[in-house]
Amino acid sequence: MVMEIVCPAGTPASLRAAVKAGAHTIYCGFNDETNARNFPGLNFDRGEMRDGIAFAHARGSQVLIAINTFPRAGDEALWHRAVADAESCGADAVILADPGLLDYAARNHPGLRRHLSVQAAAANADIINYYAKTFDVKRVVLPRVLSVAEIAAINAEIEVETEVFVFGGLCVMAEGRCSLSSYATGLSPNMNGVCSPASHVEYHEDKGVLDARLGGYTIHRVEKDEPAPYPTLCKGCFSAQDQTGHLFEDPVSLNAEQLIPQLQKAGVTALKIEGRQRSRSYVTQVVRNFRAAVDALEAGQPMPEGMLARLSEGQAMTTGAYKKTWR
Amino acid sequence: MPHPQVSIPLFPPILARALKVMPLAPLSLSLTAYSRKIAKTHPGLFRRLGEFDHTRFVLDPTDLPFVICLDPNGGVPRVTLLRGRGEGAARISGPFAALIGLVHGAYDGDALFFSRDLVIEGDTGAALALRNAVDDAELDLAQEIASISGPLARPLQHLIAFAERRTGVCLSRPEEAEAW
Fold it and tell me: Which of A301, A308, A298 is nearest to A5 (CA)?
C-alpha cells in the first residue's frame, strides 16, 4: 500500500495546490487560536474550509483539521465549536492534543475520526495505547524524538496508525510542552497557536548584518550572505562563558526522504510535511517531491534525489532523531 | 549537503537608470487604478489582511530607483511610487524579480528570507499578513493587464511572454497542471 503523504495548507490556495501536486491528505486549521499556526493572513474561515474540503474530496484527497492547541479554562466553547464545525464541514478527521478536548470529541462527535497531534508528545507504546483505548484515537503523530528502530518497536506494540514528520522545520524535543516563546512574548504555540508571534518579531539589517529580535531580545545575528533562520528562541545563537553557539538546536530543516523505505518497514502509515506557514510554491514543490518518492518506493525503484535544500531553514537539512548519531 | 542558491535575476541596470528620469506621478495613478480593479476581482485578498487592511506597506525593489507605497485602504487601494525610502509600517525589500515572483507564487517567501534575498523591516505581522494574503489570491498580473487592454490584449500577452523568456522574471502566474 502506498504511504500516505500528509501535506500542510495555510490558505485555500495552498490546499488546492497540494491537491493538484498529488497530496493524498491535507491538514489545515481554522483562523483562530484553536490551531498551532495562528499567524496573520493564514488559515480558513468556515466557508473556505467547507469549499476546500469539497475541492479535495472531488479529487480523491482527504482533509484533516488541526485543533491542536490546549483550551483555556473557561474558554472551551471556542474549541468545542471548532470540533463541531470540523464535522459539519466534512473533515475526514480532527487532529487533537488536549485530553479534555479528545474526551469532548469522543463523547459528542463519535463519528468524527480522531488523530492524536504531535503536540500531545506521545512517544511510547503505553501512552499511545492509553489514548487509543480511552478516546478511540485512530492515528498518532509521533514526536520528532524517535529513531526508526524505536518507531518500529512502538508499532509492534500498538494497533493504531502512526504518522511521522519527514520534512520541514524542527521543534525542540518537547513538543506541546515548550514554553520558550512564552518567556519572551507571553504567547506560546500550545495556548495561543503562535510560536514567536510576528507581532513580537523585529528585524534590523545594517550593512548586510541582520539582527532578529523577539520580544525586544536579540536572539541571533547573521553576517552578510549567511542564511537566516526563523526568529525562534530554540534557533537562537547565544554567547555564554566566552562561547557563542546555538544553545538549543541548529537552524536546519528535517529531511527524511531517503529514510522512507525504512519508515515503511517500521510500520509507518503516513508521512507528514511541516509548513502551514509556507507558500503554495513550497507546498507544490515539496508534495511533488515526496509523492514521487513514495510512488518510486511502491514501484520498487530507488528513492529519487530531491532538490529541497533551498526551501530549508538555514538552507541546511538533517535526518533529525531518526538517525541518532548525536546520542 | 550542498545548498543550491535561488537564482534571482536582477533588473537590467541600463533600464533601471532610464527609470530614474521617468515621471512617477502618472505611473502611480495608473497603478492605483490597476490595483483597484484587482481589488474588485480579488476581494478576499483584503479580507485576509484583517487588522492590517489600513496599514501602509513599502515595497522596495532594490534594483529599481523607486519604492512602491501600497495603502490597502480597506479594499480601495492606493499605489504611490516614490524616490527615496518612503515611509510605512512595514517594508519588504528585495530584487524586483523576487517581489513579483512572490506575487505569482513562483517563489516561497520563507525560502527567500532564509537566502537573504528578501528583507523585512518594521511590523513583521503586517508583512506576514500581506505575503499570505497575496499568496492566497493567486494573482496573475499579466492576465489582469490583458483584461483591461482591449484589442491590445493579445499582443501584450505575447510581449510579456517574450520578456519572461528573455529575463527569467516571472511576470505571470505559472501553470498549475494537475500532477496526478
Answer: A298
